[in-house]
């Protein structure tokens, strides 16, 4: 289960991650990642009410979108449980204060746990690699 401080619940947070964040698509899922630094305005910075907010360390928060196209309720719930477990293991690797939305595509309903894990890892590698190069200086010694 995903800890309470790491859950996305508000529609506005889902929208923020999807609209402002970077996206990496794979055959089974699409991952949207919005770093804290990408958001502006005091409302966005103070929206984290978790126990770490008082310490100045905003929590990474994750949300999941699994539509009816994935399958019946039993299949959708299985996919959500698998994705929650996979994301929970990867939370420490994500930048503090990030919002992550994982959207399952219809093929995820028939995919194995290992297939979901492979696609999630590939998407996160791509997103985190892009983020690291964003802030890198372009000139050497300038």
UniProtKB/TrEMBL annotation:
Catalytic reaction list: Endonucleolytic cleavage of RNA, removing 5'-extranucleotides from tRNA precursor
Composition-biased stretches (Basic and acidic residues): 35-47
PROSITE patterns, sorted: RIBONUCLEASE_P
UniProt key word Nucleotidyltransferase: no
Region named Disordered: 35-54
GO molecular function terms listed in the Swiss-Prot or TrEMBL record: ribonuclease P activity
Keyword RNA-binding appears in the UniProt entry: yes
Swiss-Prot/TrEMBL keywords: Endonuclease, Hydrolase, Nuclease, RNA-binding, tRNA processing
InterPro entries assigned: Ribosomal_Su5_D2-typ_SF, Ribsml_uS5_D2-typ_fold_subgr, RNase_P, RNase_P_CS
Record text on subunit structure and interactions: Consists of a catalytic RNA component (M1 or rnpB) and a protein subunit.
The family this protein is said to belong to: Belongs to the RnpA family.
Described purpose of this protein according to its UniProt entry: RNaseP catalyzes the removal of the 5'-leader sequence from pre-tRNA to produce the mature 5'-terminus. It can also cleave other RNA substrates such as 4.5S RNA. The protein component plays an auxiliary but essential role in vivo by binding to the 5'-leader sequence and broadening the substrate specificity of the ribozyme.
Name of the protein in question: Ribonuclease P protein component
């Amino acid at each position: 289960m995903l800890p309470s401080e790491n859950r996305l619940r508000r529609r506005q947070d889902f929208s923020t991650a999807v609209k402002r964040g970077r996206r990496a698509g794979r055959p089974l899922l699409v991952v949207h990642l919005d770093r804290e630094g990408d958001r502006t305005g005091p409302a966005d910075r103070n929206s984290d009410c978790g126990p770490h907010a008082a310490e100045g360390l905003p929590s990474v928060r994750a949300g999941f979108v699994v539509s009816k196209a994935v399958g019946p309720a039993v299949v959708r719930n299985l996919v959500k449980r698998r994705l929650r477990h996979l994301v929970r293991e990867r939370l420490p690797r994500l930048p503090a204060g990030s919002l992550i939305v994982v959207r399952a595509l219809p093929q995820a309903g028939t995919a194995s746990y290992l297939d979901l894990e492979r696609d999630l890892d590939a998407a996160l590698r791509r997103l985190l690699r892009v983020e690291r190069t964003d802030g890198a200086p372009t000139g050497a010694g300038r």
